[in-house]
Specification:
Number of domains: 3
Number of strands: 22
Mean pLDDT: 85
CATH architecture of the largest domain: 3-Layer(aba) Sandwich
CATH topology of the largest domain: Rossmann fold
CATH superfamily of the largest domain: P-loop containing nucleotide triphosphate hydrolases
Length: 502
């Protein structure tokens, strides 16, 4: 249904795509793998008309196609579901879908649109209430709306960019059932993901990109995790074995929330009576689907969000009224899920951003000791096994994954005693993510406490000594390591399971 031949794209000295060949057939799921910088995002943007290639051609249905915009791609039956959903929360499901369609009359028959939504929902396992406001939907249902938009617009070639990243385990299984229904009716699916086991579970064909080129491919049943990792990274390897280190007996509480509440503003989630204890030398995982209060929890602990009830304690001291600066000086580090919005200043260089939040460590009179800063940060990058980026360009010149690496290197450079990590491996490839997890383990083994907030249950199972479940701003479950099943946690994450007291 679609062929890309000899696709190349260069950004200055960076060759993002180098002569890539790719084909998408009807009735199959074709998975696209590769580490950060391998060229996956560039290729998907070219296929959807966002970016024009420097060389090569694209054929749709065997005919040459010029994709100069997403509109032209959609006119040829190509649709894309992005990581960040393109929905308007204040509108209903049918209103969001109607905005995307081009075949509607001047006077909209809303019930006709609703009937089409119900028909496609029943046909492909995408049932959702057409009259429900999008803001009230779960993440899984919002993703269904995104897929329905494409199907009602008559797209036959569907590109999914990291679609399982924000889903609970049972929702991931539901998505794969949708894939199976789409395959049965001849749709072509391009599935971009970092999760290798999911690829093996659902993909008919697999293409691996490495450094902008096609490193190889696999047919049904041919690929194994170890083979894929070696093809993605060469002999460097990807994922380290899981280390199961229990919390040492008798360790002191490092962080405590006692009945802590915080009021949400606007679309934010209100936190309700949280009781939480994190010990020295422990990784405490917090699971929850997107929008359950993860960001608000991190803000509350960091002092960015005032308490409306209860208290916050740090190393046995009441820290309820402590400033952000005081918490940072006492050794609290923060790795956010959106580094550009929360941990970087877009108008500053990479070097200047590395100096943020370091207190007075590098003050030299009225200036900074840039040489000492660069030496410390260089050592931190080396510990993470990350390449040191150019320091002079603005921070916005970096890709999302490289920006996350800069923030990680800065925050972990000075041996913090408490690390608040809000999905620290988001956007990182398997090798980089493995380096981050290993560093967090080393920090834990050195006596630091790590609060790991993530939507990735595989990561939480790998890392957490204890696991808490967050749903709509409340803690609804607690599990010691090795005592929980992903399905049980997934149901608690989405409010569809038994509530367990914390």
């Amino acid at each position: 249904m679609l062929s890309a031949r000899g696709i190349s794209k260069r950004y200055g000295a960076l060759l993002a795509n180098d002569g890539i060949d790719l084909s998408l057939n009807g009735g199959e799921v074709h998975a696209l793998l590769g580490e950060n910088g391998a060229g996956k995002s560039t290729l998907s943007k070219i296929l959807y008309g966002y970016t024009r290639p420097d060389a090569g051609e694209i054929l749709v249905g065997g005919k040459a196609a010029r994709l100069r915009s997403p509109r032209e791609a959609r006119a040829l039956g190509i649709g894309m579901v992005f990581q960040n959903f393109m929905l308007i929360p204040a509108l209903t499901v049918q209103e969001n879908i109607a905005l995307f369609l081009t075949d509607l009359p001047a006077i909209l028959d809303q019930e006709a649109v609703a009937r089409r939504i119900r028909a496609y929902g029943a046909r492909f396992g995408l049932q959702v209430d057409p009259h429900a406001p999008v803001r009230q939907l779960s993440v899984g249902d919002r993703q269904k709306v995104e897929i329905l938009k494409l199907l009602l617009a008559e797209a036959r070639i569907l590109i999914f960019d990291e679609p399982t990243k924000v889903l609970a385990p049972h929702e991931i299984e539901g998505l794969f059932q949708v894939f199976a229904a789409l395959k049965a009716e001849g749709y072509a699916i391009l599935f971009i993901t970092h999760k290798l086991r999911e690829v093996i579970a659902c993909a008919d064909r697999i293409t691996v990109l490495r450094q902008g080129r096609v490193a190889g491919g696999f047919g049904p049943g041919e690929a194994q995790v170890e083979t894929l990792v070696k093809m993605m990274f060469g002999e460097r390897g990807g994922e380290e074995p899981t280390a199961e280190t229990p919390v040492p007996a008798g360790t002191r509480p490092l962080l405590e929330l006692r009945g802590a509440s915080a009021q949400g503003v606007g679309s934010e989630t209100t936190l309700q009576g949280l009781n939480l204890t994190l010990h020295e030398g422990e990784v405490l995982g917090v699971a929850g689907v997107s929008g359950s209060g993860q960001k608000e929890l991190g803000d509350l602990i960091l002092g960015l969000r005032p308490l409306s009830g209860g208290s916050r304690w740090f190393r046995g001291e009441d820290a309820s009224s402590w400033s952000i600066a005081r918490l940072r000086e006492r050794g609290v580090a923060f790795v956010p899920e959106d580094p550009l919005a929360m941990a970087a200043v877009s108008g500053m260089s990479v070097r200047e951003n590395l100096s943020l939040g370091t207190g007075s460590r590098y003050h030299k009179g009225l200036s900074l000791d840039w040489r000492a800063l660069e030496a410390t940060m260089g050592a931190s990058f080396a510990a993470l096994a990350f390449p040191v980026p150019p320091l002079d360009p603005p921070i916005t010149a970096l890709s999302g994954g490289n920006l996350q690496r800069v923030v990680l290197a800065r925050e972990l450079a000075h041996g913090p005693s408490l690390i608040i990590a809000l999905y620290p491996t988001r956007g990182l490839d398997a090798r980089s993510a493995a380096s981050v997890r290993e560093l967090l383990r080393r920090a834990r083994d050195g006596g630091a406490g790590v609060l790991l907030i993530s939507e990735d249950l595989e990561e939480l199972a790998d890392m957490s000594d204890r696991l808490l479940v967050l749903f709509q701003g409340a803690l609804v479950g607690e599990f010691p390591r090795g005592s929980w099943r992903p399905e049980a946690v997934g149901h608690l994450m989405t409010g569809s399971g038994e509530v367990a007291g914390v």
